[in-house]
């Protein structure tokens, strides 16, 4: 236990003096350690950038889907209006009294 306490005390002194890595003989591998930390940092940074890009891409796709739905609705309304005008024109040519309804149809519900 006394050896451990001495080792701990010497290690703490070495840390405060800045000699701990030298005592551990890590100075030979310092560039390797730095390179490893650089690779880890680069990997984390790239992951964050990719995640940001994918999030932006998903938001763009959702917006595009909603715009496609809106476009389809408006195209459908345009075709419907064109069809109504064609039908009403044809009915007028034939002299029919039937025309475009002025108010929506009433729904008759059965009493329960």
In terms of DSSP E residues, the strand content is: under 5%
**Strands, total number:** 0
Give the helices and strands as they follow along the chain. HHH
| Fraction in helix | over 70%
Explain what the structure shows.
75% of the residues lie in helices and 0% in strands. By secondary structure, the protein is mostly helical.
In short:
By secondary structure, the chain is an all-alpha fold.
Which secondary structure elements does this structure contain, and how are they paired or packed?
Elements: H1 2-17, H2 20-23, H3 30-93
Task: Please tag this protein with its features.
112 residues, mainly alpha, 75% helix
């Amino acid at each position: 236990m006394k050896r451990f306490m001495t080792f701990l005390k010497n290690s703490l002194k070495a840390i405060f003096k800045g000699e701990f890595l030298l005592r551990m003989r890590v100075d030979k591998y310092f560039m390797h350690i730095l390179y490893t930390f650089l690779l880890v940092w680069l990997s984390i940074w790239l992951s964050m950038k990719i995640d940001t890009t994918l999030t932006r891409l998903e938001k763009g796709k959702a917006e595009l889907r909603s715009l496609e739905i809106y476009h389809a609705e408006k195209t459908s309304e345009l075709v419907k209006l064109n069809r109504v005008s064609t039908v009403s024109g044809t009915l007028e040519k034939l002299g029919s009294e039937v025309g475009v309804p002025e108010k929506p149809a009433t729904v008759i519900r059965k009493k329960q």
